[in-house]
Fold this sequence. Notes:
Strand content: 15-25%
Helix content: 40-55%
Number of strands: 9
Strand order of the largest sheet: 2-1-3-4-5
Mean pLDDT: 87
Amino acid sequence: MCENEEGTHFHSHYPSFEACVAFHGHACPGLATGYRVATAAMRTLGVARPYDEELVCVAETDACGVDAIQVVTGCTAGKGNLVIHDYGKHVFSFFSRDQDRAIRVRVCQSDMPERSGMDELRRKVFSGTASKEEEAKFRSLMQAATAHILSVPENALLRIRDIPAHPPKKARIFATVTCARCGEPVADAKTRVVDGSRVCIPCAEARSQEGERRTE
């Protein structure tokens, strides 16, 4: 069971970090950060995991932590209550429709002695040039950083503030039409009109490329 220095057992009311790892595929600092964001947001808003779109998350990154957001908060891409604006910022806004309340959670730069060592080794590991010893050291540093994020006091990791409660519009349900070019079903809002016919986006782009080649 994960426990921070303040004695908060995250598993008490929310899916476990291990459940997030099972969903994501591995444990890492990014996933741990998303887990802390998700549990803090749920506790601050006092909400349960939503059945539908009662809770909405707008994430300003598409990094690993988003997977923990999905597992813990029930804000998912498929359900339409997870919106990703990839600004490369570890900032997450949560909107509770039932409570008419919203918060913004910003991740602070946590002081981790492991960070510099990890950054130096990451390029080698992901480029495939690291030795076995360097790769083992990188994995060890990653594990230590993950444990640090899961245990550090919340106020040392996150900044939480209320924001205006203006959630995104609810997810739309689209009609299905048939692409006039490839014959595959496609949501009507995701089509383009080419030569007077409704086609899917890949077919529209392929038609445009064909036209460009003919004019070269």
